[in-house]
Design goal:
The complex is a heterodimer of chains A (about 270) and B (about 300). Chain A contains ten helices and two strands. Chain A has a two-stranded antiparallel sheet. Chain B has twelve helices and four strands. Chain B is mainly alpha-helical. Chain B is about 40% helix and about 5% strand. Classes of the chains: A mainly alpha (about 270), B mainly alpha (about 300). Chains A and B meet through α7 and α9 of A and α5 and α9 of B.
């Protein structure tokens, strides 16, 4: 005890300086982090505001995002515009980029291949070539091409933040039963996996790769499956969806689209 | 001799001259893409490797779920199916990791070459090298829980076990008993050279990581309750006593079923390499081995 008292008495100044320094640095750090979080919140709000402005701005032919996809991003069945509210921001961003990517152009000279390519050390895992991914749709190709990367990011974040409630569409029990069989079990003997094994439990979407199937109009799902089959859309990673679509029959498409349209769900609008 | 040599030189020079005077200026530069009458396809043919063609008529087709009878038997079958699909909730006390039955026995135990239940049920009781004895179907399920689920085996008379046996029985109705059906267990594959985890890592990152994650720990739903893509290693995966831990069965499984929906697209060597990459990762120990021996002994299941 005596020793401790002597120690404190001898180094009073140093100790006080140390305590002041520690308190000061703690205060400074908390101030900085507060400033940072405020700045981050402000940035997010700015991005969402920007996204809202872009979504309502007039695009090609006097149309805006919301004029087809709805003010709340709920989609429009008669126009064939899908629901985009509550979809993953990463997914929306990728789709817009793929819409904006110009399809195979004619008259373009490709970069010549290096002649000594055989000397380049490389590991050939697979000979399969994956295209960068394009999605063909006349209106969307033009609309997405007019957006900059920042605008695409903002508008994707904006529609991701919108809440949405899915209204179930009725269908006959036989169709639903067959649709459920395909959605939950796929076709094992053909090697077709179940829809829900990737698109998340109940088809609510999973991550930025697998969009929700619930809450999309059956016409849209059938149209997309047709697009995978014809090649009008080929922007999937590792050709996962194309391989599945190639093996679906017309009846399969109708059944499974009816099954997912028959489900109700709520998009919180906060998830990513 | 000299005559022959001169003739050879003349022929060689002649050929060279013939090639040299070949005028290519009028031909198309192969690197230039020109407009054609054909409308360019957005989708280039990308399947340059051999494609596996499914022959569905070859395999046994189990009954439809909607045809489960509405009686006591059907109730037991339905409970067994629930356990099979959602083992985490319906057999919670027996499971020690994040997997379900259909994490491996794909599509509710129906998929050929993914160890389908209809291919196994009729083969038991069966001699197993693992236990060096003839085991019943119930004992086999217990081993699944002990090793692949890294948990506690349910007793033979537990309601969960009875339900799982009932589901397997229903799924195998119409399948011959004691016959090795096509598509049962896993396909045979062969390798040209020793599996290499270094090559396997490349395959893993390019083909597997999108779903199973860069760290191989799987991906969970946003609420964190269940895995959508199961973990391949780590504490939530199968332990070192599981059959799929061994490199060869893992490679066979990967070859036939992975990436999901693209079975038989990886080469045999790729499947072996990526199986070796998964094999060297950390996972729970074999329950038959003590902690010290698990640390000291070399890994079992090498190819």
């Amino acid at each position: 005890m005596q020793q401790l008292k002597r120690f404190v008495a001898m180094r009073r100044k140093t100790l006080i300086t140390l305590v002041v320094l520690m308190l000061g640095s703690a205060a400074a750090l908390s101030f900085i982090s507060l400033r940072n979080s405020q700045a981050r919140d402000a940035t997010q709000v700015a991005v969402l505001d920007d996204g809202q402005r872009i979504a309502h701005a007039e695009r090609v032919g006097g149309a805006s995002c919301v004029s087809c996809h709805g003010t709340g991003g709920e989609g429009n069945r008669t126009l064939g515009a899908p629901r985009i509210a509550g979809l993953s921001a990463g997914y929306l961003e990728k789709q817009l980029r793929d819409f904006a990517r110009s399809p195979l152009q004619v008259g373009v000279t490709l970069d010549p291949i290096a002649r000594d390519y055989s000397k380049t050390p490389r590991v050939q895992v697979d000979l399969t070539v994956y295209t960068p991914g394009v999605r063909r749709h006349d209106a969307m190709n033009a609309a997405a091409a007019a957006l900059s990367n920042d605008e695409i990011h903002s508008v994707a974040r904006y529609f991701n933040s919108l809440p949405y409630t899915v209204v179930a569409l009725p269908s006959d029990p036989e169709t639903l039963e067959r649709g459920e069989d395909l959605a939950l079990r796929g076709k094992p003997e053909y090697g077709i996996p179940a829809c829900t094994s990737c698109h998340g439990p109940d088809g609510r979407g999973f991550g930025k790769e697998f969009p929700p199937l619930v809450g999309q109009a059956p016409e849209y799902i059938i149209q997309q499956l047709n697009n995978w089959q014809t090649g009008a859309r080929d922007n999937d990673t590792m050709a996962l969806m194309r391989n599945v679509s190639d093996q679906l029959t017309e009846g399969d498409k109708v059944n499974v689209a009816a099954y997912f349209a028959n489900m109700s769900a709520t998009a919180q609008g906060a998830g990513n | 001799m000299l005559h022959h040599f001169v003739a050879a030189v003349v022929i060689t020079l002649g050929c060279g001259a013939a090639f040299a005077v070949d005028d290519l200026s009028g031909e198309l530069d192969p690197l230039e893409v020109r407009p054609t009458l054909v409308r360019p396809q957005l989708s280039l043919p990308t399947k340059l490797t051999e494609v596996y063609v499914a022959s569905p008529g070859e395999f046994f087709v189990p009954p439809n779920v909607a045809d489960i009878p509405d009686d006591k038997y059907g109730d037991l079958v339905r409970m067994g199916r629930n356990i099979f699909v959602d083992t985490q909730n319906y057999a919670k006390r027996y499971v020690g990791n994040g997997l379900t039955c259909q994490s491996c026995h794909l599509q509710e135990g129906r998929k050929p070459y993914a160890m389908p239940i209809w291919g196994a049920f009729g083969m038991y009781p069966m001699f197993r090298n693992k236990t060096r004895s003839v085991v019943t179907y119930e004992q086999r399920i217990q081993d699944c829980f002990r090793y692949s689920m890294n948990g506690i085996p349910p007793s033979v008379d537990s309601p969960e076990m009875q339900a799982m046996v009932a589901y397997s029985h229903w799924l195998s109705r119409g399948a011959p008993v004691g016959v090795e059906l096509p598509g049962r267990t896993l396909p045979g594959i062969s390798r040209a050279e020793d599996p290499s985890p270094q090559r396997g890592e490349i395959v893993y990152v390019t083909r597997c990581a999108m779903c199973h994650g860069e760290q191989g720990l799987g991906k969970k739903t946003p609420d964190g309750n269940r895995y959508v893509f199961p973990p391949l290693w780590g504490s939530d995966s199968f332990n070192k006593g599981a059959g799929i831990f061994r490199v060869r069965p893992a490679a066979q499984y990967i070859k036939a079923n992975m990436p999901l929906g693209q079975g038989f697209t990886l080469s045999d060597q790729d499947a072996f390499d990526v199986a070796a990459y998964i094999w060297i990762q950390d996972r729970p120990k074999d329950p038959r081995v003590s902690y010290l021996l698990d640390f000291l002994l070399p890994r079992t299941g090498a190819p």
